[in-house]
């Protein structure tokens, strides 16, 4: 058990284990977005930082087929930040809030040595999509293209520059695909720690393994912060899922099926 899982195991709650906690048709989710951990100030503008901080949190709600309603913001910022930078940061939060019809209802601000953000998203849900219903022979698929986020991060760490529309900066969430396909999906989660690491979570929870149908190179399988969707569905619904993906113009790669064999994560832990 890695250190992150050890710490989480100290809290005994039936609501822990998915992208968010579903209680009485509401989903509560929270993620941190910290300077020098998730980003460097030189890589992104304050507007872009706030946008991404919101989007990585909204991704958790969408992964559970929930509709975001409210947001609480905690922002720790250096005293050296100018009013212009603060205004740009607020504008980024508001831009995404408007796009997803979210009401920012409060939070906290404090002084800090760097820019650290955490966002709580409160969402409503009618039919929740959990991680816990994967059965043997279900097909597993992911949306979009994986690997670009790690490639762009490596370029930034080496002093290079990336396009402002790159996946590392500008996330494309899959709310249309989930909404259109929910009747056929048995399980799902967003790919935030990398496909291989998130497969580890979903297979451990369901006590099942994976039989790969296609080869996925390690550099692609270990690429974190992709914010695509990992989904599972009955093979009898394969044509319907593919058809619904096409309707929402979502690339879908069916790469494995659930099987009674051991799954081994090939990636290093992202968090500890």
Distinctive features:
single chain, 272 residues, alpha+beta, 60s Ribosomal Protein L30, Chain: A, Phosphoribosyl-aminoimidazole Synthetase, Chain A, domain 2, 2 domains, 5-stranded mixed beta sheet, 5-stranded antiparallel beta sheet, 8 helices, globular
Describe the fold and architecture.
α2 (46-63) runs parallel beside α3 (83-99). Helix content is 31%, strand content 26%. The radius of gyration is 18 Å and the shape is globular. The strands form two sheets. Strands 1-2-5-3-4 form a five-stranded mixed sheet, covered by helices on one side. It has a five-stranded antiparallel sheet with strand order 7-9-6-10-8. The mean pLDDT is 94. It has 272 residues and is an alpha+beta fold. It folds into two domains: 10-124, 60s Ribosomal Protein L30, Chain: A; 139-259, Phosphoribosyl-aminoimidazole Synthetase, Chain A, domain 2 (Alpha-Beta Complex), CATH 3.90.650. It has helices at residues 3-8, 46-63, 83-99, 148-157, 175-181, 195-206, 218-221, 238-247, and strands at residues 21-23, 26-34, 67-77, 103-111, 116-124, 139-143, 185-191, 209-212, 228-233, 252-259.
